């Protein structure tokens, strides 16, 4: 059964979509409740609204958006992603709050040292942002790089986690903990 529920944050209201007991999508908080409902109606009309079946994610997301360090312990449904894309997203799930990693470093962790661009493509397909923290992946020079989420949110999420951007000695001075 495909269901969804809403979550509230200081940044607005978003939605969580589930396939059975696995998280299938995280929709970022929208500009308005009407915009969120329109996206659900347009893209996810096969999902049914169910209250109380969020598997603890609503409170975890609220704590995250208020600046608390959290761990997202939920099964994820990556849908039709390929093996390498799944490997990238699964590897990224282990990256700690407030830490960043480079595209190339993430590619090497997944066994394909020359696949930095493919890592970027995998991140662009991430159906569960924040839970799988694609916002924590930066260019090798420490700059933001690509982002498929709402404009400005990558910077906001990193700032929330205490990551200082543009500093050559950024938080990542030590080896990434993936």
Description:
- It is built from 6 helices and 6 strands.
- It is α/β, with parallel strands linked by helices and 178 residues long.
- The chain has 2 domains: 65 residues; 89 residues, Arc Repressor Mutant, subunit A.
- The strands form 2 sheets. A 4-stranded mixed sheet has the order 3-2-1-4. It has a two-stranded parallel ribbon with strand order 5-6.
- Strand 2 and strand 3 form a beta hairpin.
- The longest helix is centred in the first third of the chain and has 11 residues.
- The protein is globular, with a radius of gyration of 16 Å.
- The C terminus is likely disordered.
Distance between the termini: 33 Å
Question: Can you summarize the main beta sheet?
Answer: 4 strands, mixed
As laid out across the biggest beta sheet, the strand order is: 3-2-1-4
Compute the number of helices.
Answer: 6
Overall pLDDT: 89
Number of domains: 2
Low-confidence stretches: 168-178
CATH H-level name of the largest domain... which superfamily? Winged helix-like DNA-binding domain superfamily/Winged helix DNA-binding domain
**What is the general shape?**
globular
Strand content: 15-25%
The CATH class assignment of the largest domain is Mainly Alpha
Oligomer designation: single chain
Task: Give the H and E element order.
Answer: EEEHEHHEHHEH
Q: Which CATH architecture of the largest domain would you pick?
A: Orthogonal Bundle
CATH topology of the largest domain: Arc Repressor Mutant, subunit A
| Fraction of residues in helix | 25-40%
Q: Which structural class do the helices and strands define? A: alpha/beta
How many runs of DSSP E, i.e. beta strands? 6
Cα Rg = 16 Å
């Amino acid at each position: 059964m495909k269901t969804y529920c809403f979550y509230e944050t200081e940044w607005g209201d978003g939605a969580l979509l589930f396939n059975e007991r696995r998280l299938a999508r995280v929709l970022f908080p929208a500009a308005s409740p009407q915009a969120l409902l329109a996206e659900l109606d347009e893209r996810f009309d096969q999902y049914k609204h169910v209250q109380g079946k969020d598997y603890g994610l609503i409170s975890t997301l609220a704590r995250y958006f208020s600046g608390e360090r959290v761990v997202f312990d939920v099964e994820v449904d990556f849908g039709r992603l390929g093996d390498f894309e799944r490997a990238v997203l699964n590897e990224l799930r282990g990256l700690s709050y407030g830490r960043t990693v480079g595209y190339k470093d993430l590619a090497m962790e997944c066994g394909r040292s020359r696949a930095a661009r493919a890592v970027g493509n995998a991140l662009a397909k991430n159906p569960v942002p924040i839970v799988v923290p694609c916002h924590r992946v930066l260019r090798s020079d420490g700059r933001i790089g690509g982002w498929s989420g709402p404009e400005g949110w990558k910077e906001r999420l990193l700032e929330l986690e205490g990551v200082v951007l543009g500093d050559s000695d950024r938080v990542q001075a030590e080896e990434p903990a993936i």
